[in-house]
Predict the structure.
Amino acid sequence: MSSPTDIASAAAAAQSATQSAALSAAEDEAQAPEPFGLGTSAPRSDALPKALGIYPYAADLWAEGLLWGAVLRAPHPHARIVSVDTSAALALPGVRAVITAADLPPGPDGTPDGAPHGPIVADRPILASGVVRHHGEPVAAVAADHPDTARLAAASIVVEYEVLEPVTDPEQAFSAPPLHPDGNLFRHLPLRTGDPEAAGEIIVEGLYQVGRQDPSPIGAEAGLAVPRPDGGVELHLSSTDPHGDRDRTAACLGLEPDRVRLVVTGVPGATADREDLSFQVTLALLALRTGRPVKMTLTREESFQTHTSRHPALLRYRHHADAEGRLVKVEAQILLDGGAYADVSSEALAAATAFSVGPYVCPNVFVDAWAVRTNNPPAGRMRGEGALQTCFAYESQLDQLASRLGVDPLEIRRRNALATGDPMPTGQAVTCPAPVAALLDAVSASPLPALPMDDPEGDWLLPGGPGGAGDPAAVRRGIGYAVGMVHMLGAEGEDEVSTATVRVSGDHATVICAAVDSGQGFATLARQIVQDVLGVTEVYVAPVDSDQSIAGPSARGRHTWVSGGAVERAALMVRHQLLQPIAANFGMSVELLSIADGKITSYDGVLGMPVGEALEGKELWATAQCRPHPTEPLDEAGQGDAFVSIAFCAMRAVVDVDIELGTVRVVDVTVAQDVGRALNPRQIEDRIEAGVAQGVGLALLEDLRTEGGRLVNPSLTGYRLPTALDTPEVRIAALLEERDVVATFGAKAVSAAPAVVAPAAVAAAVRAATGLPVGRLPILPEDAIAV
């Protein structure tokens, strides 16, 4: 049997080899030197191996003596478990272990409770104990010699259920019997500011609905668990939070954290948490039970059943404005469906409430927001959680207000635009750059796309494509605008910290940081930071595992700020170690020396030495932490400095709608974004394009549907994702670089904001084309038929 060290070394060697191959190939093909340091569009080090299909993912791992795992999942959204009979599964040849909730550490009262877990509230069992609360919840798991045997054994486990009536309507959750000992209310958050008696001359109201969007990672959710000689276990997973997952896994297994090691394999894209923890703990428990490595790869249906999705939302709004269209008061009720377990519903609700008015000034705001438990699939972290749902609602309200006043939609937004120094409804002053008006000006100044070609070969440009456009005379073009905001880092007192080590030996450097590159390009950024500070060309970013110092989860753009800050601080410490003896030899202070273009030079130009020469024969290293300034929880009136910083984005969407068939084609999306500082312009543009694509998916296609709590489309044929033909041309009107003085490098996160704003912009454009209210996402054909 392979040892954990062997597998880890092999994985590290494979990643190192692919990175080296990529760099070598890039060097061979390059006609000019590779971009160097911050502010350049340095290529990703993993781009070539991913394109060639040689990048190592969890699904590719193998170990000697490997067993295969499979999970039995509940066929009901709500049922009481009467009995579980595993005898038939154990009798099958090749089956090595079968586990249920009874095999996990018991609860505080000594009875099986399924070892509940959760990022905020521990309420979700690893394996259902006594009750199942959503369709597809894990009930038992099997390890066998062959994957087919494992699945057959899981299917042969006999579970007797007492089927219970599911609660699937979040509005019914308030009066329904408790679905969990913790009750059905995850959180109620009121927000009160200003005069409740204030009223405007113009009042507009709306009811808005946002469906369930799934992160739908294209890469398979897979993992490998290897038992260790000390009774612990090593997990190889595409985790986005290695230390958090390690600690929660150890707690569920009843082990000390140092007896669980989590090695991060290549992450095949992540716009949310990659895997549900029950998958990881089940895998580890099977390995511990059998004493052999166990691998598990989820089917696509299982992926839809297990990982969390975006919170469906119901939003009621009333906007008061004066005769000029300036906001006087906003009233709202926000209801998020958190599904069966709490996960991060509390966090999502805080963002939805705080950003309920959007990037606009309003002196009087009264909001009630709730997140509730149902028997629907669990909802959790996904780009712009909470902020996206409210962006769709408040932008729809502003379109309605502009229509009532006969004012241009852009102008109504300009009149209410938030600026630096203005207060948010939570009472927190916006101290970071807030160039909302400038973003609107940038998108409005960008030229509009041409109309579809008026010839037979231009049929594909119309909604529906060739043969699907109906009568071209029924096609209407619409232009819509939207502005949104997202917070960066954790909120409401969450402690943010990251640690990094930079080691320099000769002419190359190594970065050790447990920040997972989940597709946002942190590994590339880390290279650029060290190149910039130390002038070293060759920079290697070590693979991530939980034995390294903590860096926290890959979410809310935090690694650019927190982990990037830690890398910079460590690199600066190494820089001081390098320059100090040189400065002493020349009788000057370190501050009078600089590193640029691979050379160390003095302020007077007398000294000029290549960095490589100064580093020859030296080994220098330093470890540093970065911890942004603290925040505080929102109080009982929704007041408090809950956010470290905020990023803003404006969009203009252009759509063509066949008003007879209800088909919609997004022609063009123009984006202006507040980025603080563009550390890698090409990478920023790529992230914006990806966010727009995800937002367009929610606007027109993506909806994980349930009937009576059961998923009805858990496949990539039933759950429609945007393809290259559905994704519009994305044009960057402006990347506004007004640096945030408290942020590392002055930079802001870029991935979430476009995903938050795009659905609202597309809805606005469809509204403009059809004259219809468009009150739900995704927009169905019947919502766009205007005849």
